[in-house]
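ARCHIVE CARD
Drawer: 12
Card no.: 0347
Subject: one protein chain, sequence and derived structure
Cross-reference: see card 0346
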Amino acid sequence: MDEWGQPGRAEYRIEPQIDTRQIRIFLAVLDHGSVTLAANALGITQPAVSQVLRRWRDMTGDPLLVRSGSKLVPTQKAEEMVAPLRQSLKKIATAFSGAPDFDPKRDDLVFRVASADCMEAFFLPRLISEIRAAAPNARLHLRSIVPGYDYATALEKGELDIVIANWPGPPGNLRTVRLMVDDTVCIFGANHVLASFPEGVTLDEYITLDHVAPMPISPLAPGPIDGKLAELGHCRNIRVIVPEFNIVPYVLLSSDMVFTSSANFARHYQRFLPIRSVPAPPEFGQMRFYLLWHERAQASPLNRWLRAQMIRIGQELQLQTDQAHSG
């Protein structure tokens, strides 16, 4: 230390500047046991090889190669350096190569997906089943898009791989692709007055009803139903707001309220509960579901594979919806 308590000049350590060319020259000399042969193999001059050896000897304080008969043989220090140097070259080559080998059946993978609540009942169980079959060693982390959750930042940081969304106006800095479209329906208990409206309800009739609705993900981002109503100059009479979709069917059993969601969501719960559904006002159109991911994951083999599985499931569900129309 100097008089100011700072490291003295001799205590500063300058890290050696080494590039891959020098590593390859050094390893070539070890492999061939000759400066001449190494230079010929690499297509460079002998002085260039000798210069690297001199520099490395100065940095290590070791001769690294010594004469044994007609060959150069490595010192103990040089032998200790070989494995780390070869591994370094391999890691650097991997970093700059194309897409690494990707085998979902063998690799230990982690998929992180956030989803709109209405997909949890009919889409996510299929996704879990498909991934369990195609990637048996994978782990799948699922979460809902709760109010206040910044899913766009989570995608940017790599905390999420993909988001399944159905709300309008996704951030423009995210990649997106359509997953599926679905009919919009009104869901209600078996004794509700809408049971006598099998063809559906008009918009004027709809806004006179009492509604149960999910908590919006943000006060500035109303869901697709309330967003559409606002465009049309209407609002609905929401009597109950629930934290997530999948308690709603049980609320409908013992109330006179209506829930507006996708036909696939309704069909799923109609298999288990005495609830019914009819078409929503035609002004609502169909619900559009899409995938969101960040540009940083666009070329990722893992993300591409996951997107392909989800798109295929969406296509299968879309086929079922189309068949329901034709039937």
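Annotation on reverse: The first helix runs from residue 20 to 32. Confidence is low (pLDDT under 50) at residues 1-14.
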